[in-house]
Amino acid sequence: MTGRTPRLGRLRRAVPESRGGRPAEGRPARLVEARGAKPRRRGAQPKVVALGGGMGLSASLAALRRITGDLTAVVTVADDGGSSGRLRDELGVLPPGDLRKALAALCGDDDWGQTWARVIQHRFQSQGDLHEHAVGNLLIVALWEQLGDHVQALDLVGRLLGAHGRVLPMSAVPLELQALVRGHDPERPDDVDTVRGQATVALTPGEVQSVHLVPNDPPAVPEAVEAVLDADWVVLGPGSWFSSVIPHLLVPQLLDALTSTKARRVLSLNLVPQPGETEGFSPQRHLEVLARHAPKLALDVVLADEAAVPDREVLTDAALRFGAAVELAPVARTDGTPRHDPELLAAAYDRIFRMHGRIGPWR
User: What's the pTM?
Assistant: First the structure.
């Protein structure tokens, strides 16, 4: 599918560019400026790759774009609900929803960025087939069909939005998430059933034992593997543990990259357990199930909100299984909602990168 059109060309030229043809970066990180430090020079920033999906990844990206201009999001593609699921079923495409959310999170805080963030997140309300479809989902799928290239199309959307980073799918084929769940049927609380579909797994009333992907050996997007291998820091989480975080560890080429990269790796824990999927999980339980799915994975830092950890010593022991140190910091919003504050999370990441990272050109 080729068919380049003059309209696409105009879009390409309409986005401000820096020398070298890449999107113009925003101003140096306000977080660093506000703390009285010298802004990092362009080209002297940590290369950061963030893995996940949904609102958890969006929270991480909204924080990370404040402290580095060299940022890549690697996004799960197992969603099968809502607008994404309908487009996936009808057109056989990758589910675009989590990719759209990541792009929106990378939009700047200026009028251009915030306007486009609202536009691509906008959902139609109607009595017809467009009801609840997100504008960004339709835009992404249209460009996939026009260009015939997932990565090129997402890069083009990022240029249009002026995104402060790059968004990549973890695999180029749609994936189905399957889980072994104890008590999925409340009338059979001791039975273990296979539950199919990310949307169903995320809302199961039972206890998730393990998850796997279908196909079980999906190919990774080469650019995603390259980004992980070339990174200074890799950030995993926060997000839906079984349906957004762990799936990255089930793509063999991506897991190989995560275990062999010279980058430092930080795991960002959720603020609260997720109803259904991780109901009743302690912070250390999240680490235990992660180790069960990827026993060879090593970590350098486990980041958690200080108010969400009742026993630091127990979490520290669990983190040692990965060779990781524990960093506790206030990263939640102060309004009482279980959401990360982008400025506080950015401060936590910035401190981790400075205190735990190898001596690099961004220092």
Answer: 0.85
